[in-house]
Write a structure and sequence with these properties.
heterodimer, A: Amidase signature (AS) enzymes, 2 domains, 15 helices, B: mainly alpha, Histone, subunit A, two-stranded antiparallel ribbon, 31% helix
Chain lengths: 479, 93
Amino acid sequence: MSLAYETIATLRRRILSKEIHPRDILKDLFTQIDAREKTLHAYTYLNRESALADAEKADLSLPLGGIPIALKDNLNALGDPCTCASKILEGYKAPYDATAVSLLRQAGSILLGRTNMDEFAMGSSTENSALGLTRNPWDSTRIPGGSSGGSAAAVAGRIALAALGSDTGGSIRQPAALCGCVGLKPTYGRISRYGLVAFASSLDQIGPLTRTVEDSALLLSVLAGHDPRDNTTDLRPPEKFLTQKNGSVQGLRVGLPKEYFLPGMDSETESAIRSAADWFKKNGATLVDVSLPHTPTAIAVYYILATAEASANLARFDGVRYGRRATDARDVLDLYHRTRSEGFGAEVKRRIILGTFVLSQGYADAYYRQAQKVRALLRQDFEKAFTQCDLLLTPTSPEPAFPLGERTQDPLKMYLADVFTISTNLAGNGAISLPCGFTKSNLPIGLQLIGPRFGEETILRAAHAFEQAHEFFQRLPPS
Amino acid sequence: MSAPQINISDVASLARLTLTPEETAKFSAQLTQILGHMETLSQIATGAVPEVTPPAQPALRQDIPTPSLSIEAALSNAPAQANDLILVPRILE
């Protein structure tokens, strides 16, 4: 079997036993990429030559020694492009490594390439990329989810073993659910964002997209920890996750928030999630009905706060220091206007305008400050729920992957695709999405397990137990 | 509170964006719809609720100089440069 189909954990064992060499993994991955990338368009850039060179000199004794990993195209990696799928970063080459990238290198991994995304991570379908859309490996007429759609399609499509993504409102978990892989959004403060191009700094987190929960834990163990260059990172000492795997959920209290089971939701999704909850109950967990009463406000809160923060963060793209610069500008102000108007795509402009408006004089109290207060109430909802249970079980997405083009003209409908993931970012908790079933038309369905803040070990153990008791993670998309 | 009418061109100008007439028309309609959805927030009683503030961090590091990007690296992406400086269009006549 092609090594491209293996998990990181298996490949590491085989590398250590000298059965295979990292160059063999790359060879098989490149064969797969040559066969599938033309359809999927998961990558924006491939490091073919440097990856092969790095494979020859990789320190195989390190935790990720010789393991190729793909990066979402918003993480700086020294010498490589970092386009954020935007025309405004055309020609930019990263002059430094993001901390997460540096940690991957220090752990021995090989940078395979850069994955497609919605421009500046603004979107839920990867259709907002200036570099062309990405297709879902299970059905190429459908979206892969977003904004880390390239990462999810690459991992699920067996053209990457694992990839990093970023999650501001669901951008790791939703594409993982729609492509049938594992996506982890760690607790806010768990992983340094230094070198991640900022979208909404009070919400952004970096996390892994993998084939299995074990691989997710392996990457989290490498990436987690305090970084003096991101002072939102937590000071707790480094941890190794999922070192004990007993496969048991006995005694676990699993909360089912009633607001996540809506009348009219996709019936196949609901049925798969209810079956997953039943599995937990049959295996010794207790199901607890809980309420997160402010859930219906989450989309509004998020699209006020995230756009407000984005309007400030994206002010740096002005054509002066890096990236695209408009020609023939009359003066500096004209340079800003022309560069930004030519360089940003429609969704980015729409969000910058919305964010500027909700912060503008006369409206900031009604929108921005009110949203911050409701965010505090959302957070309290989670804190209260976690006094009654150890984790929350919900769908990741209200429906499976939708057809390409279906929502590109209706931004509000697109925003509603994030309804089950956004609250977790607003509260700052960690959450994982893993496959829990397939529709009749063979589209993956994702289960979301949300933990208390810094409760990754709990959700990883529960997710691993569920995963190993089912065969969903072993299914392959059509080739 | 009902959804306000945004003067899209004014807000775009604050954000240093110049929109085409087509973009102005399209964004006006879309943002009116989006702001309409956000009106749900005005119905939530938040009188005594404090705003969320960034997590308190005792993680301020010592103010000790450490190596950072070299001038060469920092200027490596500049669209125009001379004498270790970035060139921009003239701002004073």
